[in-house]
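Onboarding guide, step 5: your first structure request.
Type a short instruction followed by the sequence, for example:

Predict the 3D structure of this protein.
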Amino acid sequence: MKRNIKIKSLDYLLYTAIFGGITLVSGSIVHALEFSIANIVFLIVGLILTTVATYLHDSIFSTNKEPFNFSSFFISIITAVSSGTITGGILHWQESPKFAIYLIISGFTLSIITTLLFSNKPLKNLFANYFIKLSIFSGMSFISGSIVHALNSWFSNFALIFIGAAMTIIASILNEVLMKKRKISHFISDSVILLFLSIGIGGITGGILHFTINLQYAVSLITIGTIMSYSAALFKNNGSLVDLRK
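The system replies with structure tokens like these:
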């Protein structure tokens, strides 16, 4: 499929709906102690967005004739949501240590159990693939989460931005070499696109989730996040944006 501006824009919208939806789900879980109608709405909207957008993306951009792979979809969603709860627990450690521990443990437990039950990969590759994907998702969540929480008085651990960047880069290199069996040259352009996409979409969803705390900052996050992520998406000339996370 030729990637003209219309195709790139459609790919971006579906990618944003998929992973923005995942962030809304994990974000509503992380903020469960602040029980509100808005959190419940974010959870429901996130689930619907992710499911519908994933199906549409597979129907439009899939290059094979195979039916929709539910197992792969389920593992990917649970791993991404779990990464969000794990990093959310770490990001909110200063705010509520006990709930943070619960989020971290439950995130690891749920993602490992789901991977073991639904993955059809050989056991020797399963855990390597699991920890690589978890590291990529978590690293990007650390970066965007630290930016989103910058104005909170209780948040001061900005070293997580650099930890997140290191995690993402190292895990992406391992994914290229060990999982995809490709030359490292593919990593450079794809990882830069993925990094800016993730920061941008993290800004969009972070602004939505935190609009009640600081409306002006939330609007700034959404605006800058949209410009950053869409600009990055335009540089993807081959395949689909979703391929960057595989």
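Each response can be followed by summary notes, for example: The mean pLDDT is 81.
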